[in-house]
Amino acid sequence: VNLECSERVASWGLHLFDQTQGVLHEWGNDERELLWAAGILHNCGLYVSHASHHKHSYYLIRNGELLGYSEIEIEVIANLARYHRKSLPKKKHENYQNLPKKYQHMVSQLSALLRLAIALDRRQKGAIADVKCDFSQNKQEFYMWLRPANPEDDCALELWNLDYKKEAFEEEFALKLIAKLEPVMVSVSF
Q: Given CB 3.0 to 4.6 Å as the disulfide criterion, which of 57, 105, 115, 154 pairs with 45?
């Protein structure tokens, strides 16, 4: 696993979790830790094959021995990794169907956040320095204001990837996601 990239993804996942807690979800510290673990491990399936690596990640997490986690917590982490790309969680998926309703809801919401966290590090180089989230309830819109690490960077690939991956978030939270770069403040000196 590219640990540097995984740590950034996990960090963005926690950042988004914290900014949406109490606004879009009511999950607590235990669920936050599961999201962190999934952020760290989401790409472990790449060591088996790039094709369907999200499914390989599920298998490796589910069948590995993650110390310190209960069986249900391991199942949640594995499902979050499974749904970090491609298909959204579906009732016909046995791994998802076998989860109790509470955990299905958790996986649906947290995997939507994980997808956005991954998009924020699309180039795997830490192009985004900060993200501020804002929710407009009357418009049912969720804004993500991105600040690039390099002010010259338009972060086009990250913005494109957020647009590509926003479907899960929009469906799960019944919101329109709008991601933009923070306006750059230009100082003029005479």
A: 57
Percentage of the chain modeled with pLDDT above 90:
86
CA angle (58 as vertex; 87, 159 as ends), nearest 5: 45
Q: Which two tokens stand for residue 127?
A: 């192009």
Cα–Cα nearest to 116, from 65, 169, 76:
169
Q: Domain 3-181: give its CATH architecture.
A: Orthogonal Bundle (1.10)
| Residue closest to 107 by CA, chosen among 117, 122, 97 | 97
pTM, two decimals, is 0.94
∠ CA 142-25-72, nearest 5°, is: 135
Quick: pLDDT tens for 80-123: 999 999 998 998 999 999 999 999 999 999 999 999 999 999 99
